[in-house]
Design goal:
Elements (H helix, E strand, L loop, with lengths): L6 E5 L3 H11 L3 E9 L1 H7 L5 E8 L6 E9 L19 E4 L3 H10 L3 E2 L4 E2 L12 E7 L5 E7 L1
Parallel strand pairs: 1-4, 5-9
Antiparallel strand pairs: 2-3, 3-4, 6-8, 7-8, 8-9
Length: 152
Amino acid sequence: MVRAIDHVTIVVSDLDRSVDFYTRVLDFKKTGSAHLEGKWIESVVGLKGVKAEVAYLELNKDNPRLELLCFQSPKSKAVPANSIASTIGMRHLAFRVKDIGEMKKRLEEAGAKVVGDPAAVPLDVDSGDSRRKVLFYFLDPDGVLLELAQYT
């Protein structure tokens, strides 16, 4: 039986740039890092000759860890149009915020691409929460689709 989400991994092209974005703009804290190499990681990911660096980020101990993973070997490739909302597969990762307007401004000042303006989810859309939800999508430095959501 699944008990909790342990972590989410995002493969990135430039680890330093991504750590800077997630810590400076989104307020994550870097809690560690590691070099990944050897038969164990090759077995886990199903690739030969793996050499990678990972940074571990957290918001707090009550939330799943975010792992930013950068492969030196084999080199990572972007999937064309992976940030289009209708693409099949894992679609986006959503973060709750206190002030969605302030966070949108921070993202824009940091040069992040904001996909659309904040929109209120209609009350007849069952989200499992009785509060009003306002959200918008944006892209991280590698074009990974992310969401910010505020409940009021």
